[in-house]
Amino acid sequence: MSNAKSIYNVPNGLTLARFALAIAVMALIPIREYWWGLILFAIAASTDWMDGYWARKYGQVTKLGRIFDPFVDKIIICGTFIALVEVPDSGVASWMATIVVGRELLVTSLRGMIEGSGGDFSARQLGKWKMVLQCAAVIAVLLFLIYPNTQWLSWTSLSLLWAAILLTVYSGFEYTVIAAKAMQDEPAPSDND
């Protein structure tokens, strides 16, 4: 079996490691281990590009990797936002976490529907910026929880949090418009189908 077809490769190993880091972050936040949560979150978020880069460069793209990598991205962000809801001073409200999770479920469903019928529903640049802003917001919130009496961190975390939520909503709207157009452009089934 060649490396290109084997699921036992470096990219999938990196994705699995990021999944373990995401679970650890979700376990650390409720017990107020914010420093460790911040460190592990930063490692998980900053190494997100590595598995995809490695897979493309060395021809190790697998079906498992194409599904598992974006799934882990969603677990990292959605899980951390949900964990932060439990922390009273985080500034993350339950409706914010719901928007983040809802947007991911919506886009995943639309992608499955469009690509399942042979269409292209690739990630857009705005979706990538949304992820960057969400990660920056999480890091700022964790830093504020570590240094709660720092006024500039309070404003920074709140500003980044609101900016991330607004971009999350707008990005979800953009994907919905693109999906609606793609479905409208699909040929209607004939009477013989």
CATH topology: Four Helix Bundle (Hemerythrin (Met), subunit A)
Largest sheet: none
Give the overall shape. Answer: globular
Do you know the CATH architecture? Up-down Bundle
Please provide the count of β strands: 0
Number of structurally distinct domains? 1
Helix content: over 70%
SSE pattern: HHHHHHH
* Spans where pLDDT lies below 50 across 5 or more residues: none
**Mean model confidence by pLDDT:** 87
Class inferred from helices and paired strands: mainly alpha
Radius of gyration: 19 Å
Number of helices: 7
CATH class: Mainly Alpha
User: In what range is the share of β-strand residues?
Assistant: under 5%
Task: Please describe what this structure looks like.
The chain has 193 residues and is mostly helical. It has seven helices and no strands.
